């Protein structure tokens, strides 16, 4: 009978309907490493940045080992952004962590996300069609998706390229802060594929 | 003389010393071995030399095409060349679709060869050497990704004229060049649809088509490509990526691969944008206008087809009989077998005549049930109803009633109450009569619950039964019934066999109680089936009915033991009536069952004739799973074979679409399709190879090896 009940677990059918920049960002509910349940909709009137992460991925390491990601986190959260790091790695896959391990990573990497949400089923990842780690989303006060894509313009694993690259997330954030339209609204994300549950 | 010989001598020396100079030293990185090789033995001033970056990738790992798809990165090359030399952008081998979970990448496995044309300046001096070096970096991934880089070098002599000899790798380089996308010999245009760009290709194109745009994000790599043909025109409807939505390009450029059984070719496509052509076909993924047809219906080979045409009914009847015997050990009949065994244990101490009577009555119960079911089924179908085998389990109320009955049987086995007083075996007339009635009803129950589990051999037999005249159909059903009853009939009729039965004793009580757990396992199954059919509110109603029924049974037990009088009898009867109320209110849930219909990351689709035709038209291999929640054989196959990582891997590697036809609730379209296949029940597994005329029908009990073998075409 266990077998039958196990069949219930295989629910998710993959969907690739990506959210569209300029329209309302899909609402989601997730559990943070504190065990808190948060929803995107509760952050109305605040800017929200979503960051898909996998600490084992060399492209995530590029931006964390250099301090680039932490710097973007600190500069944006200082101006009121809610930063949600989302980990969609399935159990057994690269980057999968439990709450304590995730908090430990935040601590050791001196990262400054507002929340780290664990998404081992990949529901939030599929909802946003998150493809790579990192994959970044910027959502404005009206819950409109303003930017989706790569963290910056040079898709390599080389730390030395960060200085030369245009940081699309910071650029989009600056434009919004200055009341201007975002210039690069969407870019091809680069990095490791998100390690979704099979 | 000497002065004229010297250059000749020198060039000989030169050729010797550089005989293998066109091969650079291989560099091994974590998951790949890379080297530079040149097509020619020397470079000639003013000409172009083709250099190849050859890689041998670790098994199971891949690198990326120039448009890597959903994730990944293409090769980057940073050349250090002598003054005046110029390297062109690398030419990639033909890409492959590499699915990873819900994502799809475009890339290369095995031994990709990237070709780079290097222009040699006029100023290059013959007799000198050209040192070529490149800092290559690439991303190589299996389930994890590793960025790798290597500095590759190659030293080539500069000669006044091209030598006659070919380089050591000229064969590989030549093949790589021939495998480069060639000029299209067909016309290509594209137009905008709501879903994204649609290509129209005009010309002779045969085989499986895949389009790989050069630029990323124009087309969603994991989106469905709808392929339709209209005379000379082939339409490929694709799902837009964000770059396309932001701005539709002037022309859609990319590589079209055409794959047949023995070749795979690529064509360069530069499709200019046009207005939507007048005769353009509908390219939405599920096309309700498609002609419903069961493409495999005629070509399918059925195990019993020979018998169907044969005037000899006997082999079919024999097969049905054997199938009936096998039914005894099928997963869903097993608890009922237990129940019957309990019945035997109960009468074991009685005389042989009673045992014989019970055996015959049990058989009679089974035959009556089979005759009744067959009569009902044949009658209803004659009246035009679309029903199949196991249809009685498609009604949630029937499922709930079975669950309640089995639940009460379980309680009875635990001793909460008794039916008659037979099981206590007091040995009087009444007792044997009660036992006899019990034996008959056990037979009926065995058939009702066994029905969905029509196992191997029987699918065909029942299909045949339903397609034949009513009389033949009835005979086949009865043969199955006889087979089901046979082991017990044998046991009861042959005295020697009956004497094997153990002596009665206190162990019987323990055995009875253990059997109760098998019964409860069956109840769990039925509850699960009901949850598929009627949703949470159905489960609530069943739970309330169970509560009332068990309460009634408890009071009834007290009455039997003299602990309660007339009021108790009335109360027990009232509780049983009360149990009927919620049962009668169970309705089929609006939302269809969903938990059955996924194999993790395998591309899964809900079956319909139209969408099957759609996928087949697109040249995709399709595996169809006709299943139902109440069919245990289906669930066993799913859990032990289909849902294993090896099978899923095979599905993914071969881009097989997994289509689920869920027959848990009544579905006339599925019934009709099963009928066209000559089947009357589930499971049925079909595999449509790309562009195959007819599906391969897999056995009803699947094996991992068998499924993978069929998919990989061996």
Structural class of chain A, please? Answer: alpha+beta
What is the rounded distance between the termini of chain A?
22 Å
What is the percent of helical residues of chain B? 40-55%
Main beta-sheet strand count, sense and barrel state of chain B: 5 strands, antiparallel
- Portion in beta strands of chain A: 15-25%
Query: What proportion strand of chain B?
Result: 15-25%
Helical fraction of chain A: 10-25%
What is the quaternary state of this protein? Answer: heterodimer
**Overall body shape of chain B:** elongated
Largest sheet of chain A: 7 strands, mixed
Biggest β-sheet: strands ordered side by side in the sheet of chain A = 2-1-5-4-3-7-8
Task: Provide an overview of this structure.
The complex is a heterodimer of chains A (198) and B (714). In chain A, strand 1 (29-32) and strand 2 (37-39) form a beta hairpin. In chain A, the strands form two sheets. A seven-stranded mixed sheet of chain A has the order 2-1-5-4-3-7-8, with helices on one face. The two termini of chain A are 22 Å apart. Residues 1-16 of chain A have low confidence and may be disordered. Chain A has six helices and nine strands, in the order αβββααβαβαβββαβ. In chain A, 46% of the residues are buried. Chain A has 198 residues and is an alpha+beta fold. Chain B has 714 residues and is α+β, with helices and mostly antiparallel strands. Helices cover 41% and strands 21% of the residues of chain B. In chain B, strands 1-2-3-9-6 form a five-stranded antiparallel sheet. Chain B has a five-stranded mixed sheet with strand order 20-22-21-23-24, sandwiched between helices. Chain B is elongated. Classes of the chains: A alpha+beta (198), B alpha+beta (714).
Fold blueprint:
The complex is a heterodimer of chains A (198) and B (714).
Chain A: H1 2-7, E1 29-32, E2 37-39, E3 48-52, H2 58-65, H3 68-77, E4 82-87, H4 99-108, E5 115-118, H5 123-127, E6 132-133, E7 135-139, E8 145-149, H6 168-177, E9 192-193
Parallel strand pairs in A: 3-4, 4-5
Antiparallel strand pairs in A: 1-2, 1-5, 3-7, 6-9, 7-8
Chain B: H1 2-17, E1 27-28, E2 32-38, E3 48-57, E4 62-69, E5 76-80, E6 86-87, E7 96-100, E8 103-109, E9 113-119, E10 129-141, E11 145-157, H2 170-178, E12 182-183, E13 187-192, E14 197-202, E15 208-213, E16 226-230, E17 233-237, H3 242-246, E18 251-259, E19 264-272, H4 305-309, H5 314-327, H6 334-347, H7 352-382, H8 396-414, H9 429-450, H10 458-467, H11 470-493, H12 495-499, H13 507-560, H14 566-584, E20 604-606, H15 609-617, E21 622-627, H16 632-642, H17 645-653, E22 657-662, H18 668-676, E23 684-688, E24 696-698, H19 704-711
Parallel strand pairs in B: 12-19, 20-22, 21-22
Antiparallel strand pairs in B: 1-2, 2-3, 3-9, 4-8, 5-10, 6-9, 7-8, 10-11, 13-14, 14-17, 15-18, 16-17, 18-19, 21-23, 23-24
């Amino acid at each position: 009978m266990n077998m039958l009940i196990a069949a219930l677990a295989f629910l998710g059918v993959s969907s690739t309907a990506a959210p569209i920049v300029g329209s309302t960002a899909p609402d989601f509910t997730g559990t943070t490493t504190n065990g808190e349940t948060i929803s995107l909709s509760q952050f109305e009137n605040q800017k929200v940045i979503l960051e898909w992460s996998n600490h084992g991925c060399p492209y995530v390491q590029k931006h964390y080992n250099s301090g680039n990601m932490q710097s973007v986190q600190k500069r944006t959260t200082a101006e009121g952004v809610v930063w949600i790091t989302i980990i969609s790695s399935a159990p057994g896959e690269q980057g999968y962590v439990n709450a304590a391990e995730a908090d430990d990573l935040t601590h050791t990497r001196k990262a400054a996300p507002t929340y780290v949400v664990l998404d081992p089923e990949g529901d939030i990842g599929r909802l946003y069609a998150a493809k790579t780690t990192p994959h970044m989303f910027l959502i404005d006060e009206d819950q409109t998706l303003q930017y989706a894509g790569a963290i910056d313009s040079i898709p390599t694993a080389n730390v030395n390229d960060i200085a030369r690259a245009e940081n699309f997330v910071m650029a989009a954030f600056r434009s919004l802060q200055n009341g201007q339209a975002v210039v690069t609204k969407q870019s091809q994300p680069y990095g490791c594929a998100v390690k979704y549950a099979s | 003389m000497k002065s004229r010989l010297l250059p000749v001598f020198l060039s000989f020396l030169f050729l010797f010393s550089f005989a293998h100079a066109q091969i650079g030293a291989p560099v091994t990185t974590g998951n790949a071995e890379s080297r530079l090789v040149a097509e020619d033995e020397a470079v000639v001033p003013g000409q172009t030399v083709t250099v190849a970056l050859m890689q041998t990738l670790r098994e199971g790992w891949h690198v990326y095409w120039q448009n890597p798809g959903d994730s990944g990165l293409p090769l980057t090359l940073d050349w250090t060349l002598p003054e005046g030399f110029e390297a062109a952008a690398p030419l990639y081998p033909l890409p492959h679709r590499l699915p990873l979970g819900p994502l799809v990448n475009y890339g290369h496995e095995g031994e990709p060869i990237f070709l780079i044309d290097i222009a040699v300046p006029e100023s290059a001096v013959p007799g000198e050497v050209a040192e070529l070096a490149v800092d290559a970096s690439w991303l190589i991934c299996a389930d994890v990704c590793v960025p790798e880089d290597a500095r590759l070098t190659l030293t080539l002599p500069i000669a006044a004229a091209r030598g006659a000899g070919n380089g050591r790798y000229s064969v590989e380089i030549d093949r790589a060049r021939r495998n480069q996308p060639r000029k299209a010999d067909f016309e290509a245009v594209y137009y905008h649809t709501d879903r994204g760009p649609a290509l129209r290709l005009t010309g002779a194109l045969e085989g499986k088509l895949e389009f790989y745009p050069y630029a990323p994000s124009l087309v969603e790599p994991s989106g469905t490509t709808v392929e339709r043909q209209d005379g000379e025109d082939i339409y490929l409807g694709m799902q837009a990526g964000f770059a396309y939505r932001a701005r539709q390009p002037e022309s859609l450029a990319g590589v079209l691969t055409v794959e047949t059984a023995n070749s795979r070719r690529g064509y360069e496509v530069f499709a200019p944008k046009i207005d939507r052509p007048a005769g353009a076909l509908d390219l939405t993924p599920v096309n309700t206008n498609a002609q419903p047809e069961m493409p495999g219906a005629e070509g399918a080979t059925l195990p019993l087809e020979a018998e169907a045409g044969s005037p000899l009914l006997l082999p079919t009847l024999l097969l049905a009989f054997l199938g009936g015997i096998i039914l005894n050990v099928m997963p869903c009949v097993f608890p009922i077998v237990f129940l019957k065994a309990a019945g035997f244990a109960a009468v074991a101490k009685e005389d042989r005549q009673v045992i014989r009577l019970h055996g015959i009555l049990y058989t009679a119960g089974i035959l009556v049930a089979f005759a009744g079911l067959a009569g009902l089924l044949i009658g209803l179908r004659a009246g035009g109803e679309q029903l199949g085998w196991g249809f009685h389990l498609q009604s949630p109320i029937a499922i709930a009633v079975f669950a309640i009955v089995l639940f009460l049987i379980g309680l009875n086995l635990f001793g909460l109450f008794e039916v008659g007083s037979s099981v206590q075996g007091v040995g009087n007339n009444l007792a044997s009569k009660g036992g006899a009635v019990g034996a008959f009803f056990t037979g009926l129950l065995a058939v009702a619950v066994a029905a969905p589990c029509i196992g191997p051999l029987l699918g065909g037999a029942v299909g045949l039964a339903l397609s034949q005249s009513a009389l033949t159909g009835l005979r086949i059903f009865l043969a199955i019934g006889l087979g089901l009853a046979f082991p017990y009939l044998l046991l009861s009729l042959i005295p020697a066999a009956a004497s094997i039965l153990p002596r009665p004793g206190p162990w019987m009580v323990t055995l009875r109680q253990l059997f109760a757990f098998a019964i409860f396992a069956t109840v769990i199954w039925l509850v699960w089936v009901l949850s598929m059919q009627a949703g949470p509110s159905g489960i609530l109603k069943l739970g309330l009915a169970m509560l009332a029924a068990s309460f009634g049974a408890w009071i009834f037990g007290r009455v039997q033991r003299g602990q309660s009088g007339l009021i108790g009898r009335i109360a027990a009867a009232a509780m049983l009536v009360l149990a009927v109320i919620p049962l009668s209110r169970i309705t089929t849930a609006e939302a269809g069952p969903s938990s059955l219909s996924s194999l993790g990351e395998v591309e899964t689709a809900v079956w319909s004739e139209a969408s099957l035709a759609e996928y087949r038209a697109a040249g995709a291999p399709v595996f169809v799973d006709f299943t139902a929640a109440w069919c245990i054989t289906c669930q066993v196959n799913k859990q032990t074979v289909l849902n294993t990582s090896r099978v899923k891997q095979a599905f993914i590697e071969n881009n097989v679409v997994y289509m689920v036809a869920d027959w848990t609730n009544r579905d006339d379209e599925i019934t009709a399709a099963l009928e066209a296949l000559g089947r009357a029940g589930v499971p049925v597994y079909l595999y449509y190879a790309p562009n195959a005329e007819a599906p391969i029908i897999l056995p009803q009990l699947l094996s991992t090896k068998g499924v993978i073998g069929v998919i990989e075409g061996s």
